[in-house]
Amino acid sequence: TQKLNTVAKSAGKTYFGTATDNSELSDSAYIAILNDGTMFGQITPANSMKWDATEPSRGSFTFTQGDQIANLAKSNGQLLRGHNCVWYNQLPSWVSSGGFNAATLSSIVTTHCSTVVGHYKGQTYAWDVINEPFNDDGTWRTDVFYNTLNTSYVPLALNAARTADPATKLYINDYNVEYAGAKSTALQNLVKSLKSAGTPLDGVGLQYHMISGSMPGGLASNIQAFTSLGVEVAITELDIRMTLPPTAAKYAQQKTDYQTVISACKSVTGCIGITIWDWTDKYSWVPSTFSGQGAACPWDATYLKKPAFDGIVAGL
Ligand code: XIL
């Protein structure tokens, strides 16, 4: 049976990985597959390094859950992706509704990113320093960071992360930037302006939460548009959902769609790795987030490989 990380490395990629979450780690059948470093050469904590988990109240940091994932990566010989420093969501209310002035919020952002990235110094391949900064029309998301600091929070966070761990790769990560359009253009323009200002930035994460049967075209050229700006690209959160219940025909379509995404990454040298947003439908975030949708992962809820698994292999 093929192992995805092994196949990805043969195809010239740095890793094939998956998200995971602390609550899943007591499932021995789950952990047996997760721990196979030849299947998954990289893991991302789906929740436990987010702001609400790491700094639930100001200046009070908790790393127990994040450390569990970091230690798992270490014992399995897997790369670790830090996720994330600055995001409007899963943000504790002391930040989102804090009413801080610009100087105070700047210091809060710097402290948060320095402390969290610094805690994992030497342990991560990359960090999603900035998560989901744009609206779908390419305008800036008017969250507490933008409303208080305008765009200055982006270089602030990136510089803090670089100082805290000079070796980890610093990323901006977003969705609906997987294909050409206003949002992808806005992110490309941000990359250009950060690069020309000398702000540290190593990569762009394209999330790839997709809908089966509605795959946009031009995926490879969109990836290329980012890599030509001098950053690497990673597919950071791949899943491809369908309307429930699944059928053989829907699984066949999903296989094609997985292959389409993976082969787009394969075709661009600077697309360095792929992470699925958990590998089994048992723990996917999709059904609870998109009503009536699911079956988005390459393994089903009983840990059987779906046709999507073969689509991934075929794309590599
Ligand atoms: C999701 C997690 O998978 C869920 O468990 C949680 O309830 C909500 O967040 N984009 C991101 C991820 O960057 O952090 C999100 O993860 C999915 C969308």
TrEMBL record:
<protein>
    <submittedName>
        <fullName>Endo-1,4-beta-xylanase C</fullName>
    </submittedName>
</protein>
